[in-house]
Structures are given as structure tokens and as C-alpha cells.
């Protein structure tokens, strides 16, 4: 058996892993779109390595486009097998894939018009709405913690990962001709005590782990500190008569912001006459899906609901779905909060709001999520004096705030804590889903903490063998074995003490021979424990 790293190798986006079984069947874990630089996004058009005609299944860890966005492309190319994901992920994919398809069509139409003016050929979209609709029909919901043989020789278990509603880590037991290989995919690991979603769950032991490192070199601010900072910015903008403009990812980050602002309203910390515009049809639809699935909330959010409050709604919140409603926001003259996508400010309605407000000194732009290289959001974080929006230079006179405590990704210490139970001697850990400097930093820290584990940073399209071993051996965990060895060593020491006294009834020669044998057994036990 072997595995090919199709994406998220020394970069954050494009998560996808092709697993080929001994009998040449193959399947994918994640099928994400590359996002960021033009060079990186060109990879989205390279379909050959995905072996579409041979694919038996696709497993999706969560709904974000960098983990799922190329599925409609594969369907366009002929894929018609099952797509396994958690129930909330399936619901979110229905809206995210359609939204992505519309974006692909619009961008292709815009580029085609430009090409025609230059005498060039029209551009085909990466995929169309019909492809997304076809992909939706292939979705197969799977429950968390349910160990099933979803393919012959492939036992799968989705484990809650926190991060966003429905996000999972995936544990696979692959049955080959000569045994099994257990491989784990962290997916995107959330944070302990994150809003709305439960804490990340625990994965069963693995032989190989693919571990995300988005923030492998950083430590986040605490959530309470970040909430306090956000509300201080809101109060300052209100006093100045300005707007708070927040580029936010449609799924999870937007809902967390609504949750925080709803609580601020209940606590009297949000001005009654300061509207909060959610100007993203996608985020509005995602919020409705969140509201429809409270069974996947954490206990604190369920308690708010049980008390009769609405954690994802409050009087100040205004949903703006139509283009006309969106345009009217920029005619609103008083202080307001505007939440819009995309989260990296390189697409969507947020571009219009930045164009209308970046040049105003009383505007506050709040960055609350990861910003990939070469995106508008990243330029703002790095202090660019101007940015290009709709091919026009816009001066940055607004105050730009970066609050990383809202991240739905675990930081360095949280990643280490999540993976620690899996770090037995001999495990191979592939560090993925991070910028290279984050991976290098995390590798050094993790290697020092877990010296008997092999850490590796794979390259794009790198192929790895997944060596099997008999399943009974795979079930023997070193921690359990070491405990038994310690007990045996203690019993041997007690027996040696008893043999050394005259009352044992043994002759000196017999006692000497037994003591030698016990000493050898004790040394062997000690070596086993050290291993």
C-alpha cells in the first residue's frame, strides 16, 4: 500500500491524500482546492494524479474549500462514487460547493471577456454549478465515533476535531495482503474551549499520522482577551462614528462573531443603535445550518439554548442577501459593524466594503483569521500603505487590528497536547497544512518533546509506502507492554530476594543457577521497557 501527498505539502491549502491499496484500488482523503498565489492555484487544473477513473471513494474531513473544493472538478471528470463526511459537513458542502461553482463560472466569464478583447481563446471554468449539484448527490453522511468498513479492507472512524461544525479527524485501518496499517489524518484541529463546537476528541493509535501545522510556530491569545479586544474596538469605532469591517470566513468564524456579539448585546456591551450587517449570502446560509443542528453544539451553547436565549441571533443583527441591500450598507452614515466574506479579503462583498472604507481614518478593519500569502488580507496585516481592489489602488488609512485568539486552529501547545497520546516509539508523523516556516519550527519542538517519533515534512506529490504488520501485533501498545514489563520486573526482584535466604530449601548450586536465570530475565524485561 502507498500514499501520495496531493496537497497541503509545505503550504496550507489543497489538502488531499491518495491512498492506493495492495489490489490497486484507491481512494482520497480530502480533495481541497489550492488557494493563494497564481502559481499555487494553477495546481487546481492538474487532474491526472487523482486517478479519477480508479477512485472508489472520497473521505472529507470538513467543509472548508481547501479540504473539499476540488470534488466537483473530479465529478466533472467522471467521478461517481460515494463521498463520506459527517452530517453537518454534508449540509455545509451543499452550499459551499454551489457558491464555489458560481465563483468559478464568474471568474471564467470575466477572464474570457478579457481574452476575447486580446484575440485569445475563452477560458473554461474549473467546474460549473451542474458539477456541484452532481457532487451533492454523492454525499453519504457518517456518524462520529462509528467504526465502519466503508470500503473493502478500509475501516474508518470519524472523530470530532472541533475547528468548525462537523469537522473530523479521520482514523483508517487499512487491511493489506500481509497485515494492517493504521493511518490518521488530524484534519484541522480546533482549540480547547472554542465557541459553539465541542473540544477535539481522541484518536485511536496509529502507525502513520498526517498532522496539521497551521499555527505550529505560534501561541494564540486567550479567547477572553480576544473578545475584550474586539469589544474595545467596537466601542472606539462607535465613539468615532466609524465602521468596523471584518473579513470573515463564512463557516464557523462568522458564527463565532455572531455568538460573541449576541452575548455582548445580552450583557449590555453593544450599543443598541449600532447595527451589525452580515453581508454574505453564504455565511447567512451557513448560520441557518448551524441553527438547524444544535445537537452538534458544545454543552455551553446547548445550555444557552435551554435557558431560552438565542446564541446566534440578536436584534441588532441584519442579514443582507440581495445586491441592493449590500450596496445600501455603504450609504449608511452612522457607526456599524460589517461582517462579510471572503475571509482573506480577496473575493466577495468584503472587497466593496474595503474599497469604500479603507481610506477613512475612523474605520477599523479587524482581521480574525488566517491570511494566506499574496491575499489582500495578508497585505493589510503586513501594513501595506495601499492595496489594489478592483484594479484600483486604495489608500489604507484605516486602523488595522489582528486578533489571532479567534482562530479555529490549535496553536503550538494545543497541537502538541492533541497528538501526545499518539506519540509512541516508531510512529511516523508527516507535518502538513502549514507554511514551511511554521512546519520547521513545529518539527524542532515536537522532535525534542517526542524523541522516539519520526517527524517528516513531505513535498507535493511525494509517495510513501504504508508498511503492514499482523493485526494482533498492531494492537499491542507499548504503553500497556511497558506496564506489564514493570510488574514482571518487580515480581522477579521479589523472587530473587526469597531465593537468597537459607530457608528457600535450595542447594547453593541450584540457587546460583536460578539467580542467574532471574537476572537475565530481569535484564530482558528492562530492555523491553526501555524500547
TrEMBL record:
Keywords: Hydrolase. InterPro entries: Beta_Casp (IPR022712), MBL (IPR050698), Metallo-B-lactamas (IPR001279), RibonucZ/Hydroxyglut_hydro (IPR036866), RMMBL (IPR011108). One of its GO terms (molecular function) is hydrolase activity. Gene3D superfamilies: 3.40.50.10890, Ribonuclease Z/Hydroxyacylglutathione hydrolase-like (3.60.15.10). SMART domains: Beta-Casp, Lactamase_B. This is MBL fold hydrolase. The keyword Transmembrane helix does not apply. Residues 254-380 form the Beta-Casp domain.
